[in-house]
Design brief:
Elements: H1 2-26, E1 32-36, E2 51-59, E3 62-70, E4 76-84, E5 90-95, E6 103-111, E7 114-121, E8 124-133, E9 139-147, E10 153-162
Antiparallel strand pairs: 1-2, 1-10, 2-3, 3-4, 4-5, 5-6, 6-7, 7-8, 8-9, 9-10
Length: 163
Amino acid sequence: MRKQALEVSITIVLTLVLVLASTAVAADPFAGTWKLNLEKSKFSPGPAPQSRTLKIEAQENGYKAVVDSVDSQGKPTHTEMTINYDGKDNPLTRTAGGQSGELTIATKKIDATTHESVIKLGGKEVQVMREVVSRDGKTLTRTSKGMNAQGQEVNNTVVFDRQ
């Protein structure tokens, strides 16, 4: 009788832990699909891309992101990354366009709605990026400072709207 009660108690506790963990992941304000708002964004130096969609899937201690863009000349790019909030370098996988070489991203969670990332190329820091989700959860603002693939100084403010 006690063994059954113990097994039931363990099952209930494990179920609660899984429910709470999945709720915490689902509640991530970054999770979802975001579309570039060109009117509210500033690209320095330009030109701005024609379009960009960011899809974020929450995972334990981070998220998986897929970015599909069309640059100013109409060339598509596709970038995939797994972001961990441990501050360690994680690889970026990019197809077509953008910087070539070994790209990594190291991200720290500042608070529930703010991340800060360092992007490196071949182990050398090239950009620092800060992402903030608005209080209403409808806007994601990304500020980036550093260098682009052409060696130009970058100072971008990129605004995304939740879809």
